[in-house]
Q: What sequence folds into this?
């Protein structure tokens, strides 16, 4: 086996992106022979300081060159003769100049009078020519501004690696008619829950037409829900979870559309109601009305996930309370010992507005106190309990057309004595809170475990 001795000579390699048909022109694109020699010598001593630029238009002074990147190599340089395939002059390649950066945007100055004038005067370094150089200050339109290009247009030197790939969750399926279509194979199952509002004439009586047959697991949850809806036709999701086996938690939202519909407005908002049952036509449904509260809690508030309100303990995950689930000794009697309406109201349901808003103000006062880690103020509670129950027409006519200044004056009028500033402040806060409208879209984090009640 023949062996060759590697020479002690070391070389630098330049990977030029063009064809070297003309040797002189080839060297000019790299700045000339002297620039090449200087860059190669510097690469062996200090590679970071080696500068070699590629200029595809050497005669254009405004061309933006591409700088080479120097990399250390341990390659071999050989000379091969085609006649006899012999190998000679084996040497080492220690440094390589690579032009891998993207070329900058180029701007041609060939038709620029200002650049031509600049080159013929300042660049020749002639005193008389420089002395004659002047800039025309005549105003021109912006689109006709003639000026030299900037030294750099783009600061992006390397191309972006986008890695464009087809969505792995999307696939092509064949339809019954023979055509093909692209579908999301791993998409979230849609929950075909029927929703309704207080403006409809009749409530839904059966499930959605697009709802298919339930799976075995979903059917088990349905069978567990049937006796609950027979006993009580209107439920919140949290109340149902507390009456079901914990293993059914994930499947509840898929089982509810088979038995119930969802209210999106009115006094039964965000409650699931048994198909065919209309709480607007049954005064006994007053016990199933729901009260909503916007509570902004921090991470320190933790509690049992219950649907019952006792007025003493804060349960952060529950923001919706049904009347039948309120056991607070102060509030519960107000809901039981009251005269109901003859017809269901779109906002306050079967309760008269005066009693309804009094209960809501009491619950809000207690909830805000519990958030602060305190017990509700007896002064505030008694003030609400002793306040006159104003019907809705009188309640809003006094305040809707008044600003904050008029509100303060009204509070002072209600408290004729005006001797206790603390009581006045409490009344102002209570009235402001009572006038806050709690929209369905404003409820924040009604339930952390079940944000998507409708599905995608």
A:
């Amino acid at each position: 086996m023949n062996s060759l001795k590697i020479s002690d000579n070391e070389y630098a390699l330049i990977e030029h992106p063009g064809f070297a048909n003309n040797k002189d022109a080839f060297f000019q694109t790299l700045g000339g022979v002297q620039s090449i020699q200087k860059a190669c010598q510097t690469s062996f001593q200090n590679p970071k300081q080696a500068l070699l630029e590629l200029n595809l238009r050497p005669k254009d002074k405004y061309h933006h060159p591409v700088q080479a990147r120097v990399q250390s190599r341990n390659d071999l340089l050989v000379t091969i003769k085609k006649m006899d395939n012999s190998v000679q002059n084996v040497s080492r390649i220690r440094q390589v100049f690579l032009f891998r950066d993207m070329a900058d945007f180029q701007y041609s100055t060939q038709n620029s009078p200002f650049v031509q004038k600049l080159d013929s005067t300042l660049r020749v370094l002639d005193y008389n020519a420089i002395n004659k150089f002047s800039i025309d200050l005549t105003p021109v339109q912006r689109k006709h501004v003639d000026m030299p290009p900037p030294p750099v247009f783009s600061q992006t030197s390397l191309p972006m690696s986008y890695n464009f790939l087809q969505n792995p969750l999307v696939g092509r399926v064949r339809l019954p008619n023979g055509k093909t279509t692209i579908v999301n194979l791993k998409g979230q199952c849609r929950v075909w829950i029927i929703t309704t509002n207080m403006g409809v004439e009749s409530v839904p009586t059966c499930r959605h037409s697009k709802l298919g047959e339930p799976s075995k697991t979903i059917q088990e949850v349905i069978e567990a829900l049937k006796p609950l809806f027979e006993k009580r036709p209107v439920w919140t999701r949290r109340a149902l979870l507390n009456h079901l086996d914990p293993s059914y938690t994930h499947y509840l939202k898929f089982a509810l559309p088979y038995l119930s519909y969802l209210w999106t407005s009115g006094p039964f908002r965000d409650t699931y109601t048994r198909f065919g049952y209309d709480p607007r036509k049954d005064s006994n449904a007053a016990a199933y009305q729901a009260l909503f509260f916007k509570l902004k809690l921090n991470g320190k508030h933790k509690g049992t996930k219950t649907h019952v309100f006792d007025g003493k303990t804060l349960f952060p995950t529950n923001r919706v309370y049904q009347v039948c689930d309120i056991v607070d000794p102060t509030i519960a009697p107000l809901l039981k010992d009251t005269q109901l309406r003859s017809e269901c109201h779109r906002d306050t349901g079967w309760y008269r507005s005066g009693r309804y808003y009094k209960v809501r103000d009491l619950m809000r006062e207690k909830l805000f106190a519990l958030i602060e880690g305190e017990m509700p103020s007896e002064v505030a509670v008694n003030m609400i309990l002793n306040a006159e129950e104003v019907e809705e027409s009188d309640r809003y006519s006094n305040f809707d057309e008044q600003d904050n200044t008029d509100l303060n004056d009204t509070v002072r009028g209600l408290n004729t004595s005006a001797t206790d500033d603390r009581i006045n402040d409490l009344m102002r806060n209570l009235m402001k809170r009572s006038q806050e409208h709690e929209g369905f879209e404003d409820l924040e984090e009604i339930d952390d475990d079940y944000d998507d009640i409708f599905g995608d």
